[in-house]
């Protein structure tokens, strides 16, 4: 069907009122004349099936969670339970290709699995596949081999085009069958935070356009292409490379978590920017701050969580809604782990991000705050249609109370209220003028005042429709509403101690109040007037209307799942889709009604009182399959006790474990044979950054070693008095150098938090004594711990910055005759295609495969006979040692018990540690920088019901040695969970990988 005909039909249907929600007449409805579009939008919102949708999204990176499908499903279920209807997903090109010409989308690299799970759960997906993604990941998602492609990345230069084209073509093919409505994918992003062609940046828009053309040419014709603009300056709204749907990103509190109570102001320019950039197109945010990353030497993720806590979510996200943002994705909603070598230099292993769902998948107070907002937006279909009528302090009697008033074509009013200065942390009491069907009213009318705490935002509503009822106004916030047994049930809340007022017209004079009496109601002049200060739960019933008033702390513990099977799409709203209200549990995943029974599934963290407000046809309830003994609560809910059944597990004690240990630096021993190593024979490089000395180019990437630790060995004969080394490894890197087996010294660059921003390279002169230099072959061995390849934010090929020895000079007359370099086993042809190219580095124990399950450590020393063979005893000199142990876990099936490895940090001694669990690298630790000392070992990678093999290495950068003062396994939560076991991921062991 051609667009004009379809458009005419749509408009005709709208005029006939055939759709549940009014598509505004004359609105574009479709974008760019694309007649095959299944996902459309106008000035207010996205449409799916001609229904408006507030896209409430959260960012998740499957590749930061290699535990696989059941793990992803758990995260998606948690998002869905909190009202998220969309998951935004970056994909990482680099993890799918070890070598140019190869592509691998199996396992945690899968697109299909992500879309299948989302489809099954009824959650939508925004795909963001780059090619460049940034994301604080190694090379911003570029493959390591791209550092060797002599073309400016992120431009239309041929070498780069040839590199990304097969990848983006594959992505398109994966997405094509999953485009809405056949699948969950509603949008695809091209590139990331990109800028168009300029006089100093040629070929960018051309490249952007080519990515978009590639998507379209491979069948992505039903969904809009988007882009995220960090400066909100309208890039790619028009011109070459223009996208269908302009989206922006913003991180208003920044990324420095060291002052976690210091906030920036909310962005008051959003409304004006929308007007300026694209007033005819809905306002959409591809990324809005959900937390913060944290650098080496940073404050740690608990501080980031504090900076970006539930109050932040309350004030800043509501400011977005006030600016008519109708598409918002919180970056990150679940952060995950920079396992292997996924990190780029400014971040460490954990990517917890202080997100609403923490790295161990536990839920936070911010998650609950977001749940209240998502429920409200889902239930308030008038909201996305509303336009701003005023945005200033004029509606309040207090100058510091800022209100954005919006009104919908149906006459609903929304007042988004906050303090006008985020530095205010105390309560402000105020009156507010609101526009009601009875004219302008100053509320509260019946005594008391409204209150706003410091750093609180509230949404008052007027003429608010729920089912066949309307609130004339409410100064309590709306959590959600639903229809149960033909009764419209609305849930209101406010902080305990805050006065609320709500008025609802009714023809019935009899109001039944149950539960807390801190709220009262009286019928007057055809309305019910509700006043008081919420405390616990009050329910008020009259006619076919029920009002539930919670104090906010109580509201945060309630859930509103839609009944499974009643509506498959995530965007249907009550009364189309029946739902129930459930109070108490830590998590409610699912509610299904079968006949007179209600089956609930969910998770608990303590013994819990369950309250259910559901149809009177419900006579029995099960929780995770077990029948419950029901009673009635004072406020009329069905009530039961949910016993918490998981005992605190016994976690093996690593201090008493038997450790096997072995030296992991044979490279400094006399006679070490490096003849099979790659000879660094290049004498020139096409990279922007040239060598700073020496005949040969020693950059590890030039020889195919892109990830993890690398080693360079320079051979010379004859006299030498020292060596000058320029070593570059990324911020917070480290290296050590030896002449033969004599330790020369180490340097760890500068902490990036140091004054001046730190350095990612150092130049040192190491002097030899005459006695150190032997007749015949001498070897300088340089071991480098790189912190990853840089990102490429500025389109300057920064990700090609050399890693390893950047330049060298042998002092005293001779020169090196040959340099040998080494990195991860096999370089770009590494054997472990399951765990993928970013898992391993090039230390001896890694090349040997000692980190792999089943490694025969038969000739290693044992702590059973040598008490020094333990990481808590460590090394007595500079060097590298690997320690292995095994432990068993036997956790009950109905439990979610996240385990982490906990270190005691000793900043005074300089050492670096790599952690491998069952062959997977799940931690990199630097005693100097920290801050991470707790390393989650996620279920799936960790076997919760069997044996596990742990390897930790200690590289002492100090001449006097180093040890890990304490090392233990801890459980970071103890959840009685309904989810099936995550199950251990099938991954190969030593025999398969080092045959
Ligand atoms: C954004 C970028 C993301 C990520 C984020 C910070 O600007 O698009 O990829 O880097 O910043 O975590």
From TrEMBL:
InterPro entries: Betagal_dom2 (IPR018954), Betagal_dom2_sf (IPR037110), BetaGal_dom3 (IPR025972), BetaGal_dom3_sf (IPR036833), BetaGal_jelly_roll_dom (IPR025300), Galactose-bd-like_sf (IPR008979), GH (IPR017853), Gly_Hdrlase_35_cat (IPR031330). GO terms for biological process: carbohydrate metabolic process. Gene3D superfamilies: Beta-galactosidase, domain 2, Beta-galactosidase, domain 3, Galactose-binding domain-like, Glycosidases. GO terms for molecular function: beta-galactosidase activity. Pfam families: BetaGal_ABD2, BetaGal_dom2, BetaGal_dom3, Glyco_hydro_35. Residues 382-558 form the Beta-galactosidase domain. Its EC number is 3.2.1.23. Keywords: Glycoprotein, Glycosidase, Hydrolase, Signal. It catalyses: Hydrolysis of terminal non-reducing beta-D-galactose residues in beta-D-galactosides. It comes from the Eukaryota. Residues 1-20 form the signal peptide. The keyword Nucleotidyltransferase does not apply. The keyword Disulfide bond does not apply. Belongs to the glycosyl hydrolase 35 family. This is beta-galactosidase. It comes from Rickenella mellea. The lineage of its organism: Eukaryota, Fungi, Dikarya, Basidiomycota, Agaricomycotina.
